[in-house]
Specification:
The structure is a single chain. The protein is globular, with a radius of gyration of 23 Å. Helix 12 packs antiparallel against helix 13. Strands 1-2 form a two-stranded antiparallel ribbon. It has one domain. By secondary structure, it is an all-alpha fold. The protein is 66% helix and 1% strand.
């Protein structure tokens, strides 16, 4: 009887362990899904347009926000993290209403659908509903970035038809099949993986992270040719190593890494160096020239709003407005009929033109809060996720140290990253505060 009881207990414990592991993995894969859907993955592999994937993501987020809203009915007020992001979102909606009603008038169905584009900013509420942790978000980001990297690596060997929509003209090597997908997420993931590698104490763990970095490096540094992201990844690693990384042998580790990086640089960055030397003047770069055209184009539209911004609008080609004209028609005016004019390309300028001077300052303020608070959390030695959040903080700063600083909070391609980062900042701050208030 005793043997049977022991066997039953052991079997029950094993089942609970399996269920617990499955639950942990499912939460991380859910976060990964939220990261990949705005890019169109994985549905684009089956021929589903990216915009439909984006809409499905919003449909997923909205009910979760509703669940959290019901939970918050027990409270009288929102906390500072919740109230800050709500004020920002409401301001963006206010600008959209005023501008589309008075400055650049159009029917409600021409701009109201555009309001859903900023729903991912409410991820703080959606993820709080299920008590998602910092580690789960970081792991989900890594899963998402490595999944995209794996697809790009497979595509290099055997082209995947479902990735054709991500095909761009290669600047440095016209023969290269240049697939650009989730490059911003890859930039964040690269710095996080380097941080984890530096803090790994076991050979098996170190080999695992080296393999992950190898998987990521080709798509990020060779295939994407996205110089702003590549620079951010490199600068982010440097900032993390100098300002966050702690070790008794820090100087030795960084010296060895510097030697390795110097040896690998010609292989990884050789074509970029050769291109820069051959180009001479930055104004000769076609990407720089076209971004200048986009800044001029949207700047002229911004001038019609007296500095207030033109706000959100529907991006459906069936709803003609200044943004859909730019995406589907206006590029032909500048001799590029097969291209498009996009606020995504001009990054932080997009925040200024869409939401005016006030919106621009708010976006910079939110970015500063994210970078500073995550760095502040990384200073708590007892915090187990200090290196993860420190790596994220370093990457945010690196993306801002750019000729075109990143727009994390209003750009269509980065608003999910912004919503995730705001949640990450709030959650990490709460975890560190709880740690400091815990009795010794």
């Amino acid at each position: 009887m005793a043997l049977m009881d022991a066997t039953t207990l052991a079997s029950g414990h094993a089942r609970r362990s399996q269920c617990s592991l499955a639950a942990q993995l499912s939460r991380r894969f859910f976060i990964a899904l939220l990261f990949v859907m705005p890019s169109g993955l994985p549905l684009s592999l089956f021929g589903v347009p990216a915009y439909q994937s984006d809409q499905i993501q919003i449909v997923i987020i909205a009910p979760l926000v509703g669940v959290r809203a019901l939970q918050l009915l027990q409270r009288r007020w929102l906390d500072r993290w919740e109230s800050t992001i709500m004020v920002f979102l409401l301001y963006c909606y206010f600008v959209s209403f005023i501008s589309n009603s008075f400055f650049i008038p159009q029917p409600p169905d021409g701009w109201l659908p555009g309001l859903v584009l900023l729903v991912p900013l409410l991820l703080l509420f959606a993820l709080d509903a299920f008590k998602i942790t910092v580690k789960e978000v970081i792991d989900g980001l890594l899963i998402a970035a490595l999944f995209a990297a794996m697809l790009v690596n497979v595509d290099r060997v055997s082209p995947i038809a479902g990735l054709d929509s991500y095909l761009h003209t290669a600047i440095h090597d016209p023969s290269l099949r240049r697939i650009v997908v989730m490059h911003n997420e890859m930039g964040f993931a690269f710095v996080i993986l380097v941080a984890r590698l530096l803090n790994m104490r076991t050979l098996g763990g170190a080999l695992l992270y080296l393999a992950a970095l190898a998987l990521l490096s080709g798509p990020l540094f060779v295939v994407s040719e996205t110089r702003l992201v590549i620079a951010a990844a490199v600068i982010g690693c440097m900032l993390y190593a100098l300002l966050v990384y702690r070790s008794t042998v820090k100087a030795l580790v960084l010296s060895v890494l510097a030697v390795i990086a110097a040896g690998l640089s010609p292989l990884i960055f050789g074509k970029y160096i050769d291109y820069a030397m051959a180009m001479g003047d930055l104004g000769d770069d076609p990407s720089v020239r076209f971004r200048a055209i986009e800044i001029l184009h949207f700047g002229q539209l911004f001038d019609q709003t007296a500095g207030f911004g033109f706000g959100l609008m529907s991006l459906s080609p069936n709803k003609p407005n200044i943004l859909t004209d730019a995406l589907f028609r206006d590029a032909a005016l500048y001799g590029a009929p097969d291209y498009w004019l996009s606020l995504v390309d001009i990054r932080i300028y997009g925040a200024l033109y869409q939401f005016g001077y006030v919106g621009f300052v708010l976006v910079l303020g939110l970015t500063l809060i994210v970078a500073y608070r995550l760095w502040w959390c990384s200073r708590e030695v007892a915090y187990t996720r200090r290196d993860d959040v420190g790596a994220v903080a370093a990457t945010v700063v690196a993306f801002m140290l750019s000729p075109l600083p990143m727009n994390l909070f209003t750009a269509e391609n980065t608003v999910t990253i912004g919503g995730m980062l705001w949640f990450l900042t709030a959650r990490a701050s709460r975890e560190v505060r709880a740690l400091r208030q815990a009795p010794p």
